[in-house]
Amino acid sequence: MVSARDITERNQSQKALQIKENRRRKQSQTLVQLARSKTFQQGDLNAALREITEAAARTLLVKRVGVWLFNQERSKIECIDLYDVNTKKHSFGNSLSEKNYPAYFQALEEERTIAADDAINDTRTQELSKSYLSVWGITSLLDAPIWLEGRLVGVVCHEHIGEERQWTLEEETFAGSIADFVTLAIEAKERNVVQEALRQSEAQFRAIFERSSIGIGLIDMKAQIVDTNLALCEILGYSREELYGKRFTDYISTQRGDLKLYKQLMSGIHTNLKTTSRVGFQPFKHQKQFVERHRIEMERRCLHQNGRLVWTHISVSVIPANNGEPEFFLAMIEDITERKEIELKLRASQEAAETASRSKSEFLATMSHELRTPLNAIMGLSQLLQQEIVGSLNEKQNEYVNCIYSSGEHLLALINDILDLSKVEADKEELLLSPLPVSDLCNYAIWTVRDRALEKGLQLTCKIDLEEDICIADERRIKQMLLNLLTNAIKFTPAGQVSLVVKKVSQGITFTVSDTGIGIDSNQFQFLFEPFKQLDSRLNRQYEGTGLGLALTRKLARLHGGDVTVTSTLGEGSQFTLFLPNPVDVQTGQDEGDEQDTAATSSPATAQNKIILLVEEEENTAIVLQDYLQTIGYKVKWIDSVNNFLEQVRDLRPNLILLDVQLVGDTNIRDLLNVLKQEPYFPDSQVVMMGFSDLLEEKLSILQAGANDYLLKPIRVVQLESILTRYLSYSGYISGIV
């Protein structure tokens, strides 16, 4: 008996299982082969993708496999490798924009794989039908998104051509694994890029380390030298092998406080480590800031092998390990011996210059006193002769006396210019700024130089173009500047005219002095404002002068915040412009007035046998003052020291005391006057100090000490008249201003 059973279904089932098992085995073998491939280790992304796409196409039996990655803006995906089984070629270049296929891009974000059996009608992929699927005859898609560090970076597309294909779960899992291999390939490339950059960086650092002209040393936390470059070896005079393992501090001269610096450095490091440990130390992000924050710099001497001391600038930084703990010290050492030697020479030169400047100031002060002392007699006696107090003079004698006096005035002006220039250069000049009528300043300047202009037949004009007739300046100094400019213009103008024009400009006020004189070559402009510099330097030069006027004028102008500029044409004339800026903050006050102002007027009175005590050491000055005062009716007692000063005061009970500052010497003026004030008759006496200093602070100091007034030497008759009028009601014996 034969028994027959239909096993077709069973055979078909077994055959299907066998096919399924073969596919699973093939997929596993492919994944194992990819895992063992050395292509990934090399970091060549293109080679890795070619291997992946060929293996995937061969395993899943699809016609095309492509790898698509997002662009930098994440606005589209671009095909970087597409393998075609029929042609066995790889291509790239297509792209798909997110704005054109939003459903497809959303599916990539949300699903592990996109298994579209009917890709034309699948809602996830039907957007691709016309522009992509139909073009290539693609019916089914199996797409696996590529994820990198939790971020979607692209997709692997398995494209089936022909009849629709139903993707199995195993195939979907395999596609996901293929996408993971793409992720590994991308990571391998990035890792390779980082490693290559690190290798290049290390090579560059080593090249810099070795070729740097600055000495570099790597030192461990025990202060032992780990590595050095050639420059440091040359600075210290040892080879790299000789320095290795030695203590770095053995070659550096230490100073008090170095240990404290080191402790502060290390203390700061550990404080920061506590902070970074709470948030996690990120060496690549924080290492630069860490090194910059933990650095000390100092200048120290290093000991060379031959015993020579080398001046160096040392910068020590802390280099942390990956865990943030300090691992090394990096010492940058620069040889500054030459610079130090230059600094020492410059310091010596500066000290020599300061000594020379002090010597110059002392010399000028001494010479000022020595020159002004005989000028007291020359100018004083000539004034007495001019007034014919001791007898009348004939015409020739009067001419000689006038010449003597004018020469004395010229010499005094020269001395004052030298001292003024010295004070300005030494920054000792102080301005007493106040509101001044411009018309008064110009009238004073024009009136002062008028006679000189008339003598040469020059036309002298003045024009003021201002809405407000006020400027802010030091009265004595602005008069001095205007007189210097006008005097120069008259001196160098043989014929024609000299003009003074005042105008308001946007940032201040200008005083322009123009002439039709000899003019100046533009090549000579650079010498105009140099002290003691005359453009005509010959011994028999036509125009006399010291060359101080313009130099002092410019320095005084700049002291006001302004300047003096010049334009000139040789043979046609010159134009000097004094600019004074608008004041930002001016403290108004009353100036002490010009030395040459006329004496204050008062009601007429006579000397009436009033007594003057003259305390003056210099004989000629005393004789001039005594003779003049006695001639106009005063009783004068002259003493040449302060030894018996108080006794003379008690005996004479003078109405006026003229006291030389130099005679007081070491005796404090305040103390002397305080003693004088104790006398019961003192309210009837006035004390006027006499001296050579015209510094405002010294005058104020003398007045604050208790003196009634101050007379500047050489004493002019007009000054003396002013004092007599103020304190003895003197009406004025002498009519003219000398």
UniProtKB/TrEMBL annotation:
It is found in: Membrane. The modification 4-aspartylphosphate is found at residue 660. Its EC number is 2.7.13.3. Residues 611-728 form the Response regulatory domain. GO terms for cellular component: plasma membrane. This is Circadian input-output histidine kinase CikA. GO terms for molecular function: ATP binding; DNA binding; histidine phosphotransfer kinase activity; phosphorelay sensor kinase activity. Residues 1-19, 296-348 form the PAC domain. It catalyses: ATP + protein L-histidine = ADP + protein N-phospho-L-histidine. Gene3D superfamilies: 1.10.287.130, 3.30.450.40, 3.40.50.2300, Histidine kinase-like ATPase, C-terminal domain, PAS domain. PROSITE patterns: HIS_KIN, PAC, PAS, RESPONSE_REGULATORY. It is an enzyme of class 2 (transferase). NCBIfam families: sensory_box. Its main location: membrane. PANTHER family: HISTIDINE KINASE, TWO-COMPONENT HISTIDINE PROTEIN KINASE. Residues 366-584 form the Histidine kinase domain. Residues 201-246 form the PAS domain. In the N-terminal section; belongs to the phytochrome family. Keywords: ATP-binding, Cell cycle, DNA-binding, Kinase, Membrane, Nucleotide-binding, Phosphoprotein, Transferase, Two-component regulatory system. Residues 1-22 are annotated as: Disordered.
